[in-house]
Amino acid sequence: MKTVKSPFHFKGGVHPDYNKELARDKPIEKLPLPAELVVSMSQHLGAPAKCLVKVGDFVKRGQLIGEKNGFISVCVRAPADGKVKAVEKRLGPAGGKADAVVLDTTATPEPAPDANSPTPPPTNSPTPILPPLDWKTATREELLKRVEEAGICGMGGAGFPTSVKLNPPPGKRCEYLVLNGAECEPYLTADFRVMLERADRIRLGVEIMRKILGGPAVRIAIEANKPEAIAAMEKAFADIEGNVEIVVLPVLYPQGSEKHQIYATVGRVVPEPPALPIDVGCVVENVGTVAAIADAVEKGEPLLERVTTVSGDAVVEPKNILAPSGTKYADLVAFCGGEKEPPAKVISGGTMMGFAVSTLEIGTTKTTSGLLLLSKKKVFQYASGACINCGRCLRACPMNLNPALISKAVDANDIKAAEDASVMDCIECGACSFGCPAYRTITQSCRRAKNSIRARIAAEKAKAQAAKKS
Ligand code: SF4
Ligand code: SF4
User: What pLDDT is stored for residue 274 in this prediction?
Assistant: First the structure.
């Protein structure tokens, strides 16, 4: 195992204020179980899980409450014992509504009518939910199945089903497993703390993933501004065998982008969509996901909770909090001592790629890496103006796009022009909007165009299928 500096540098990128000092030295704290959890059936990329419970049901921690509903989908398990209060559409972190199970975790089951079969007590206990596996003797198929039944998806933000990612299609082989420990989003320190405090789990997760993927080389990507994390990984991986390197990346946003990380670590370029990292022999996983795989296999613990950074200058005490999925943002903020002042903006995620939200009644998901409360001082209060053709967004764009052209096309409702300008290649990193002197909301324009194109493609597919049937 060795530590090297990244020899490959991508074009573009920006240097936002990182503001990580607010939470980086705060050890992970476990949140006491909230009285209510809002557990979404859509915590991942792909088809939402199919809800298996109804109002009035009692569920046990770890019980399957949402069934995987398609190839690109992930199951959902109850993060705690509780009574189902409601099954209804609820607002999610990205602004859309999805089916959610609202759990009352204070309710206790009614006594069983038969005295000889007493109702078992609540089981919010560390009893294994799935039978622990010995990864060394388990088969690849058993390990893959475990990742699937544990409901694991990418925890870095995208939420791609991990069991699908770890099972390349025929003809594709993973040559490099890249661990994403860049965490380049401002304010967020959850991955940083996981690398410091759960280094042994990351090491074990890597061993398991190497076995599943047939022994690829491993590259652990960390930005140079996290020397403690680099040291923690060096210690954890010191005696590992095989081709393993820690790659120190220059501090530049968006180093955490999957495509840019592949380039920075192994010098390979992922072609435009629908190409995937596996098309260039790579699989990228966030460090939190890797630790979750270790827990699922060795401890039989599904993905029921995660570390979320709550930060910003409008929260009393920024923290890194281990909380069950479905924890309402309001409960996270209360655990941080509440609001220092009414926030001018609340962001689900980081400032570059996150989503502004209007309520704290949203439940966390498996991908909720951060929650930011920002005061007026930290929020741009300027109205968006006309493009002055300065070209700054072109220089910042790490995907070599022309963001100005795309945003003007979207303003003119000319989605075809945005598509011709390769808007589907946009990774929604926010680097273009970050430096725009006219405060144009370019990234939102890109998202709008991409959503519109996806909707059109889906409608065309449905129409073609209907025509085929008739
Ligand atoms: S156009 Fe997309 S990829 Fe390029 S800087 Fe803007 S958000 Fe990032
Ligand atoms: S940075 Fe803003 S003002 Fe400059 S070219 Fe891009 S969109 Fe126009």
Answer: 83
CA distances from 408 to 119, 403, 445 (A): 63, 9, 9
The residues, any chain, with a CB within 8 Å of residue 124's CB and separated by 6 or more, are: 33, 61, 80, 81, 105
Ligand 2 near 396 CB (within 6 A)? no
Helix (H, G, I), strand (E, B) or coil at 335: helix
- Both tokens assigned to 122: 């609540």
Q: Give dist(CA 5, CA 245) in Å, integer.
A: 10
Q: Which of 185, 355, 397 should be mutated for ligand 1, with most atoms under 8 A from CB?
A: 397
Q: Please identify which residue in the block is written with the tokens 């993060």.
A: 79
Q: Is the CB of 389 under 6 A from ligand 2?
A: yes
What is the number of the ligand 1 atom nearest to the C-alpha of 406? 1
DSSP β-ladder status, 370-374 and 76-77: unpaired
247 pairs with which residues across the strands?
4, 221
Angle between helical axes of 190-197 and 227-236 (0-180°, round to 10)? 40
198: tokens are 């759960």
Instruction: Tell me: pLDDT of 123 over 80.
Output: no
Atom of ligand 2 nearest to the CA of 432: 1
**Could you tell me the two tokens for 399?**
């995907």
Which tokens in the block code for residue 279?
A: 């098309």
d(CA 282, CA 177): 6
- What pLDDT does residue 416 have? 95
Q: Rounded to an integer, what distance in angstroms lies between the CA atom of residue 161 and that of residue 94? A: 18
Q: Does residue 118 register a pLDDT over 70? A: no
Q: What residues form DSSP beta bridges with 20? A: none
Specify the amino acid at residue 302. P
Cα of 408 vs centre of ligand 2, distance in Å, is: 10
Residue 269: name the closest of 425, 462, 384 by CA: 425
Q: How far is the CA of 374 from the centre of ligand 2 (A)?
A: 25
Q: What is the DSSP string of 379-418?
A: S--PPP-------HHHHH-TT---HHHHHHHHHTT-HHHH
User: How far is Cα 401 from Cα 425, in angstroms, rounded to an integer?
Assistant: 8
Q: What is the pLDDT of residues 375-391, one digit of tens each?
A: 988 886 667 888 999 99
CB neighbour list of residue 427: distance below 8 Å, 6 or more residues apart:
254, 257, 259, 398, 399
Q: Which ligand is nearest to the CA of 440?
A: 2
Q: Is the CB–ligand 2 distance for residue 74 below 6 Å? A: no
Residue 290: which of 99, 444, 153, 430 has the closest Cα? 153
Ligand 1 pocket test, candidate residues 255, 399, 425, 447, most atoms within 8 A of CB: 399
Best mutation site among 427, 441, 451 for ligand 1, i.e. most ligand atoms within 8 A of its Cβ? 427
Tokens found for residue 244:
């393993």
